[in-house]
């Protein structure tokens, strides 16, 4: 049985790309390094790749990663590789995720977010010897919490009910 998280109608490309742009703008907010703020681009990419793997794929994930690399001034391709791996994992899990509740989906996606964090940390260590602080590795938990919020909001936007058309009103009211 498919849960309430099933996307009932096919969203337009505008919804997909506006949500990715909004997530990118949230990632651009300077929050400092004192709190493991969730990577909203990663969460939104995983959402679209998990629910609509044919519309958003590895190229979009790679491109968004390059944009994040340029923004953060890190080694070019670091986030691109992490986002591509996240997208590949989400595409691999997309049939299984539909069967679970949003909270169960978040629990199942935390290991994907851990892999993403480890890839970024390992590349950073190899490139410049930088070691991530201990709290950096708690970010996948916050990504999982952000998954719950992003999933509920995007599903509500996509599945919003329209007012019934004239034909449907006649059937509903018998006039």
Explain what you see.
The chain has helices at residues 13-27, 40-51, 58-72, 78-97, 102-128, 139-158, 166-173. The protein starts with 12 loop residues before the first helix and ends with a helix. Residues 165-171 have low confidence and may be disordered. The radius of gyration is 18 Å and the shape is globular. With 175 residues, it is mainly α. The longest helix is centred in the middle third of the chain and has 27 residues, at 102-128.
Give the helix/strand layout.
Blueprint (H helix, E strand, L loop, with lengths): L12 H15 L12 H12 L6 H15 L5 H20 L4 H27 L10 H20 L7 H8 L2
Q: Gist?
A:
With 175 residues, the protein is mostly helical.
Percent of residues in β-strands? under 5%
Q: Tell me, what's the shape?
A: globular
Number of strands: 0
Unreliable residue runs: 165-171
Q: Cα-atom Rg, whole angstroms?
A: 18 Å
The level of helicity is 55-70%
Q: Structural class of the helices, strands and pairings?
A: mainly alpha
Named CATH architecture: Orthogonal Bundle
Tally of distinct domains: 1
Query: Major beta sheet, specifics?
Result: none
CATH topology heading: Arp2/3 complex 21 kDa subunit ARPC3
Order of helices and strands: HHHHHHH
How large is the count of helical segments? 7
What is the typical, i.e. mean, pLDDT? Answer: 87
* N-C termini distance: 36 Å
Name its key features.
175 residues; mainly alpha; Arp2/3 complex 21 kDa subunit ARPC3; 0% strand
């Amino acid at each position: 049985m498919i849960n309430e998280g099933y996307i009932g109608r096919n969203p337009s490309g505008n919804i997909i790309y506006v949500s990715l742009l909004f997530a990118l703008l949230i990632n651009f907010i300077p929050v400092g390094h004192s709190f493991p703020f969730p990577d909203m681009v990663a969460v939104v990419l995983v959402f679209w790749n998990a629910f609509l793997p044919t519309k958003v794929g590895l190229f979009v994930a790679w491109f968004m990663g390059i944009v994040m690399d340029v923004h953060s001034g890190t080694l070019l391709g670091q986030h691109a590789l992490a986002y591509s791996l996240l997208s590949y994992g989400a595409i691999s899990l997309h049939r299984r995720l539909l069967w679970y509740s949003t909270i169960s989906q978040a629990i199942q996606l935390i290991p994907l977010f851990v892999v993403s964090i480890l890839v970024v940390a390992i590349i950073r260590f190899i490139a410049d010897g930088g070691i991530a602080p201990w709290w950096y590795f708690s970010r996948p938990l916050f990504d999982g919490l952000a998954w719950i919020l992003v999933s509920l909001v995007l599903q509500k936007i996509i599945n919003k009910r329209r007012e019934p058309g004239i034909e449907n009103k006649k059937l509903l009211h018998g006039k």
